[in-house]
């Protein structure tokens, strides 16, 4: 059967190679379109591009939500450009040179602001029909800026992955612009975060020199620079040397140039003395304007300089440097030779009758130029080459098929092991606090469960989240009931982590996965993302993030690291939700900038912990118990997993009225960093309160 499939595939490959000899791999041909340009949307020739980027959304300085400058234009962008090219991919650009530095800096440096920005960017992209997001903070220039950008990319990618997993939509593309500059060290960029979290990066390989800054004429986007240490070639090499793979770099092409005013019209080569900008206020000119100015003013040129790979024209004392058709072709050939992912232009409306766009799109993988109506004679047509490609394809396909069937056997074996674990877990006692991970349990497990656990009934239970947010039903949950719920969850996690034969990490513990039966007894549900450890294992890493944003700990979002302390962190958030009745994910405090955990910490720190209590509770005599539960919850959401208690310690603190509860530090992902927290912790006395009014059976291992 395998050989038949391989023969059929090889036959089609052979036909394809005969019909299209040495056809190049599809690669990125991207272009920015600025919304205030004089080129209407309907006139964009989208057939010349694979990706078009609408520029640019701003950022609100108070909410850190996106600011769309023209809702009508941005909402029509995708639909309009897809009329000529249905396969075009559209992206929304955020930032650019016009973006406010202080607003972007504040957003990137604050976890709460980052979360607000990330969630709104995803929502806006979906709302306006974009298939990806482009981040262009071109003014970032400090080490703190770069570190914060790296963290932003990590959290952004995690949020996009979670949004995709929780919907039927394709995953959004995430890219960013990287500005090459003689004054900026390529090593200062967050290389590792870019490599791991972005689909690719736009390398803006221009604006190296400008008439406002330099009083000598220059090729502002020089591919090579014989008299300088910096050029596009050296910048690309530096990025690759720092760890960014060439396959994630897209070369920026400028469809514009700069005009200098020559100090002496007789000295008019690259490097000639100049007095400043010419023609326009800052000297910048679109390729379209350069062409028209040259024709009407009787320019000399264009002149091609092969040392720099640049064009320039001379109009009297005006000297204009730019990338013409021949330069664009050479740069695209260079990008292919260096195995880059493609090219991106700024910006499409600067082109003159699509001449540069066509030149860029006409360069194939061998460096030949496809002329309109002609044939590229550099493409190999030899039968020997076809046989080599066919043989190579055959080997790759056979290896792929072998790998596929081996992988299927491994996965089936793994599923069988997991099924055995599920069955074993059902047999364990006690399980009154846990529901199992089967999605259709009534059929599969009816013979195993017997009369101990009615899993079908459990699926009819109301979620804790529903009970806590319903304004009428939450009054049924007095403080004693909530204590029992907290204790029930604690015992459930304690069993999974300590007393089960295998250590079980839930990985998606949240209020919506805590179910209540008719007696308001808590049960942990939905083990579909759970992982099991042997008793001598402590932590693991993953490249695929799962869970619910806001409940997963920082080490999981940033490094993919999870352990039993991951569930402890999630438990702390759930506990704060039970105590306060407030939703996780909303912002609190006087300026509405604090997460639920940090808001609770601020109140506890100021001895105002009772203010976090759900207003529906009037059990004022239980204040000591509530404060102790609050303090334990804050210990569970510490930044460092080592600072969080184990569930065994949590159980001891909850049940033992003489237990000493440690003083928590600030929660993970906090906005504020108070210098006097340590001094205050040294002065704060520990309280001993009775929290053992509720009677709950002790969990023991079998």
Which strand order do you get reading across the main beta sheet? 1-2-4-5-6-7-8-15
- Global Rg: 31 Å
Main sheet summary: 8 strands, parallel, barrel
The count of strands amounts to: 22
* Class computed from helices, strands and strand pairing: alpha/beta
Total separate domains: 2
Uncertain runs: 1-25, 363-381, 423-432, 436-462, 681-702
Organism: Salix dunnii
Domain GH18: 27-367
Domain Protein kinase: 289-660
InterPro entries: Chitinase_II/V-like_cat, Chitinase_insertion_sf, GH, Glyco_hydro18_cat, Kinase-like_dom_sf, Prot_kinase_dom, Ser/Thr_kinase_AS
Describe this structure in words.
- Residues 1-24 form the signal peptide.
- Its EC number is 2.7.11.1.
- Keywords: ATP-binding, Disulfide bond, Glycoprotein, Kinase, Membrane, Nucleotide-binding, Serine/threonine-protein kinase, Signal, Transferase, Transmembrane, Transmembrane helix.
- The protein is α/β, with parallel strands linked by helices and 702 residues long.
- It folds into 2 domains: 27-255 and 325-380, TIM Barrel (Alpha-Beta Barrel), CATH 3.20.20.80; 428-433 and 463-683, Transferase(Phosphotransferase), domain 1, CATH 1.10.510.
- The chain is 39% helix and 15% strand.
- The strands form 5 sheets. Strands 1-2-4-5-6-7-8-15 form an 8-stranded parallel β-barrel, surrounded by 4 helices. Strands 9, 10, 11, 12, 13 and 14 form a 6-stranded antiparallel β-sheet that branches.
- Strand 13 and strand 14 form a beta hairpin.
- Helix 18 (564-580) packs antiparallel against helix 20.
- The longest helix is centred in the middle third of the chain and has 45 residues, at 383-427.
- The two termini are 49 Å apart.
- The model is unreliable at 1-25, 363-381, 423-432, 436-462 and 681-702 (pLDDT under 50).
């Amino acid at each position: 059967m395998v050989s038949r499939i391989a023969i059929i595939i090889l036959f089609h490959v052979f036909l394809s190679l005969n019909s299209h000899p040495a056809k190049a791999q599809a690669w990125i041909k991207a272009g920015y379109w600025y919304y205030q340009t004089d080129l209407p949307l309907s006139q964009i020739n989208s057939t010349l591009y694979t990706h078009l980027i609408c520029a640019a959304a701003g950022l609100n300085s108070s909410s850190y939500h996106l600011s769309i400058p023209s809702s009508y234009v941005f909402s029509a962008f995708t639909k309009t450009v897809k009329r000529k090219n249905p396969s075009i991919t559209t992206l929304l650009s955020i930032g650019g040179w016009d973006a406010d530095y202080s607003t972007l800096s504040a957003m990137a440096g604050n976890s709460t602001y980052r979360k607000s920005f990330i969630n709104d960017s995803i929502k806006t992209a979906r709302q306006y029909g974009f298939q990806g997001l482009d981040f262009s903070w071109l003014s970032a220039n400090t080490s703190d800026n770069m570190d914060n950008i790296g963290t932003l990319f990590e959290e952004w990618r995690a949020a996009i992955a979670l949004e995709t997993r929780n919907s039927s939509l394709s995953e959004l593309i995430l890219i960013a612009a990287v500005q090459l500059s003689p004054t900026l060290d390529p090593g200062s960029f967050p290389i590792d975060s870019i490599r791991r979290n972005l689909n690719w990066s736009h390398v803006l390989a221009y604006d190296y020199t400008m008439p406002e800054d330099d009083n000598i004429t220059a090729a502002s986007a020089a591919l090579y620079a014989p008299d300088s240490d910096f050029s596009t070639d050296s910048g690309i090499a530096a990025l690759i040397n720092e760890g960014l793979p060439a396959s994630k770099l897209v070369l920026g092409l400028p469809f514009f140039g700069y005009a200098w005013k020559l100090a002496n019209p007789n000295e008019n080569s690259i490097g000639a003395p100049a007095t400043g900008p010419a023609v326009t206020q800052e000297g910048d000119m679109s390729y379209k304007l350069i062409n028209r100015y040259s024709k009407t003013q009787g320019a000399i040129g264009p002149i091609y300089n092969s040392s720099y790979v640049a064009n320039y024209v001379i109009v009297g004392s005006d000297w204009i440097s730019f990338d013409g058709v021949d330069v664009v072709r050479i740069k695209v050939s260079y990008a292919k030779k260096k195995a880059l992912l493609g090219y991106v232009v700024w910006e499409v409306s600067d082109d003159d009758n699509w001449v540069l766009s066509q030149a860029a799109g006409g360069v194939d993988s061998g460096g030949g130029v496809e002329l309109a109506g002609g044939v590229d004679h550099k493409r190999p047509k030899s039968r020997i080459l076809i046989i080599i490609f066919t043989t190579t394809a055959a080997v790759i396909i056979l290896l792929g098929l072998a790998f596929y069937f081996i992988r299927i056997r491994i996965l089936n074996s793994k599923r069988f092991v997991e099924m055995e674990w599920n069955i074993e877990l059902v047999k364990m006692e006690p399980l009154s606090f846990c529901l199992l991970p089967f999605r259709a349990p009534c059929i599969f497990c009816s013979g195993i469960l017997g009369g101990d656990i009615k899993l079908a009934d459990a699926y009819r239970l109301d979620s804790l989240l529903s009970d806590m947010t319903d304004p009428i039903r939450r009054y049924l949950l007095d403080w004693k009931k909530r204590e029992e719920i907290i204790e029930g969850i604690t015992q459930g996690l304690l069993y999974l982590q300590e007393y089960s034969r295998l250590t079980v990490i839930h990985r998606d513990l949240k209020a919506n996965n805590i179910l209540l039966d008719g007696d308001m007894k808590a049960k942990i549900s939905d083990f579909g993302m759970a992982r099991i450890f042997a008793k001598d294992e402590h932590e693991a890493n993953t490249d695929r993030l799962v869970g619910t944003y806001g409940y997963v700990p920082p080490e999981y979002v940033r490094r993919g690291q999870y352990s039993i302390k991951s569930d402890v962190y999630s438990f702390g958030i759930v506990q704060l939700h039970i105590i306060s009745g407030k939703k996780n994910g909303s912002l609190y405090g006087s300026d509405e900038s604090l997460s639920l955990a940090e808001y609770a910490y601020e109140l506890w720190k100021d001895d105002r912990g009772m203010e976090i209590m759900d207003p529906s509770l009037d059990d004022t005599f239980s204040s000591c118990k509530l404060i102790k539960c609050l303090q334990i919850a804050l210990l569970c959401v510490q930044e460092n997993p080592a600072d969080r208690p184990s569930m065994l310690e949590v159980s001891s603190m909850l049940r033992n009225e003489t237990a000493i509860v440690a003083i928590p530090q600030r929660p993970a992902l906090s906005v504020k960093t108070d210098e006097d927290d340590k001094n205050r912790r040294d002065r704060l006395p520990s309280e001993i309160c009775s929290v053992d009014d509720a009677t709950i059976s002790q969990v023991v291992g079998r």
